[in-house]
TrEMBL record:
It comes from Sphingomonas turrisvirgatae. GO terms for molecular function: CoA-transferase activity. This is Succinyl-CoA--3-ketoacid-CoA transferase. InterPro entries: 3-oxoacid_CoA-transf_A, CoA_trans_fam_I, NagB/RpiA_transferase-like. It comes from the Bacteria. The keyword Transferase applies. Keywords: Transferase. Pfam families: CoA_trans (PF01144).
Length: 239
């Protein structure tokens, strides 16, 4: 069996990228971002991209790099805050946006990975989210029909992988990454650590290796925090 482990992001993406493709990119805010694969896509110069991701990074980091480089034509997202460039491009008409409720976005991606073309949800009924979509009544309640989301490529970031591609995520990085790994025609995972086959307890596997085509060990993870909030220090007791 050919090895799934590649030396670097560029080689892992070789032969995969093309203009006009759809890319699923994991992450929740900046947590769980594929920090090594995104710059490699930027450097490859592919354009006219549709990117499916919870958000589009933050100023100077994450998917913002592709946005700033003029490579993204359309975003399918659920959150568009913390990114002034996104706002500017959308309001000027240079960027298309398909905005989804967050749970709907996750379920559309999960449906794409599971081979389910459509499903119904109450979320968004009676709002702009439901405009142009079929609405049906079940048990006296209206539900809007949503369709699956799939991509030509899924890029995800995990904590650990073994050579078979079994993935383990940590904490908030276990957000959109697992469902996106199932919905890409090709899935490339970057990980903090590659361990020997058998080192991951099968009960601890979050994404089975059957969904993962290529793996790289990432480097120099910044793991930035968009907004750092700290608890106010208590006032010192008076003497």
């Amino acid at each position: 069996m050919a090895s799934k482990i590649y030396a670097d992001p560029g080689s892992a993406l070789e032969g995969v990228l093309f203009d006009g493709m759809t890319i699923l990119s994991g992450g929740f805010g900046l947590s769980g971002n594929p920090e090594n694969l995104i710059p490699a896509i930027r450097d490859a110069g592919v354009r006219d991209l549709t990117v499916i991701s919870n958000n589009c990074g933050a100023d100077g980091f994450g998917l913002w790099m592709l946005l700033n480089n003029g490579q993204i034509r359309k975003m399918i997202s659920s959150y568009v805050g913390e990114n002034k460039l996104f706002e500017q491009l959308y309001l000027s008409g240079e960027l298309e946006l398909e905005l989804n409720p967050q749970g709907t976005l996750a379920e559309r991606i999960r449906a794409g990975g599971a081979g389910i073309p459509a499903f119904y949800t109450k979320t968004g009924v009676g709002t702009v989210v439901a405009e142009g979509k079929p609405v049906e009544t079940f048990d006296g309640q209206d539900y809007v029909r949503e369709t699956w989301l799939k991509g030509d490529l899924a890029i995800v970031k995990a904590w650990r992988a073994d050579p078979a591609g079994n993935l383990v995520f940590r904490k908030t990085a276990r957000n959109f990454n697992p469902v996106m790994a199932t919905a890409g025609r090709i899935t490339v995972a970057e990980v903090e650590e590659i361990v020997p086959l058998g080192a991951i307890d099968p009960d601890h596997v979050h994404t089975p290796g059957i969904y993962v085509d290529r793996i790289i060990q990432g480097a120099k993870y910044e793991k930035r925090i968009e907004k750092l909030t700290t608890r106010p220090r208590p006032e010192p007791a008076s003497a």
